[in-house]
Amino acid sequence: MSLDPLLSEPVSDPLPLYRLRDAIVATDLLAAAIAHLDFFTWLEENPATLGAVCAHFEIHPRPADVMMTLLMAMGLVQQNGGVFLITLRGREHLSAKSPWNLAPYYTSMKDRPQTLDMLKVLRTGKPANWGSYDPQAWAQAMEREDFAKPFTAAMDCRGVLLGPALGKKLDLADSKALLDVAGGSGIYACALVAHHPHLRAAVLDKPPVDRIARESIAKRGYAEKVSVIAGDMFADAWPTDFDVHLISNVLHDWDEPEVRVLLAKSHAALPRGGQLIVHDAHINADKTGPLHVAEYSALLMNITEGKCYSVREMGSYLADAGFEWVDYQPTAVGRSFILARKL
């Protein structure tokens, strides 16, 4: 058995442990819908589009979309021709008209700080604060070493499983140089060169994460294969001497306009025929699940400016940026990758 964890894998499945962490705020989103909006009583009488839901409850489209995806994944709402309808389960158990209405059971959660945070996010579209790092938003907090170091470590430990799972699924035989955009500790770049030894790779990230990445890559023994480039993925031009880009667990932190900016920057920097790998947790095309990804999307919506995007949304954004769809495959613990090629 290899001593390098990037070339091995655990025997047991950690998905239940991922779900416990990733779903931690999904119940608060459901509670906000029930206890503050009385959403299901209204929907029973008013089948509605997403726009109508936003207008009636005065909530923001991004968190509203995440809420509706979660409710569909929970089997409480369904969609027909763009119109949301209450399901039998939602009608029997969450409408005030039903003798089996459970809404009062959720009312006890109404004043929990986390539920109130969810209500605020729904109404403003702005993320709540991450932990105790008030009042800075997550993106600004990442510029502080006291936040960036433990956060990067958290993502690194996740990447020890996800990186090799991605590396085993990808065919990069014709690729030479990979740029890992906002690659954090460099765990994914290391995993990909471990599984594709002909590759050279670089991590693009801004201070202080670039220094953290150099230390982590050296500790793993990949400093000769993986370099680090200090830079801001939004503000700086991306280097052009790479024929494949990896954007792993990054787009879900940003709203649609920023996602489109990053895809456009990738397209501009890649050569013709260059490949883009979008590795993330993706909602299915109909936005009905999977439930664990819908739960994770609620967490992302709460603490960042983004959400989990559906494969249909990503396909549209990629096409608009000038990419053609090549492949989509699941990897591990609910994550997946989309492979696209620059036209």
How do the strands and helices of this protein lay out in sequence?
Blueprint: H1 15-22, H2 26-36, H3 39-45, H4 50-57, H5 61-73, E1 77-80, E2 83-86, H6 88-94, H7 103-107, H8 113-124, H9 138-141, H10 145-169, E3 177-181, H11 187-195, E4 200-205, H12 209-220, E5 226-230, E6 244-248, H13 256-269, E7 275-280, H14 291-303, H15 311-321, E8 323-330, E9 336-342
Parallel strand pairs: 3-4, 3-6, 4-5, 6-7
Antiparallel strand pairs: 1-2, 7-9, 8-9
Helix pairs in contact: 2-8, 4-5, 5-14, 10-11
Explain what you see.
By secondary structure, this protein is α/β, with parallel strands linked by helices. 46% of the residues lie in helices and 15% in strands. The protein has helices at 15-22, 26-36, 39-45, 50-57, 61-73, 88-94, 103-107, 113-124, 138-141, 145-169, 187-195, 209-220, 256-269, 291-303, 311-321; strands at 77-80, 83-86, 177-181, 200-205, 226-230, 244-248, 275-280, 323-330, 336-342. It has a seven-stranded mixed sheet with strand order 5-4-3-6-7-9-8, with helices on both faces. Strands 1-2 form a two-stranded antiparallel ribbon. Helix 10 (145-169) runs parallel beside helix 11. It is elongated and about 65 Å long. The chain starts with 14 loop residues before the first helix and ends with a strand.
Number of separate helices: 15
The major β-sheet equals: 7 strands, mixed
Number of strands: 9
Question: What oligomeric state do these chains adopt?
Answer: single chain
Euclidean distance between termini CA atoms: 41 Å
Average pLDDT value? 93
Q: In percent, how much strand structure appears in the residues?
A: 5-15%
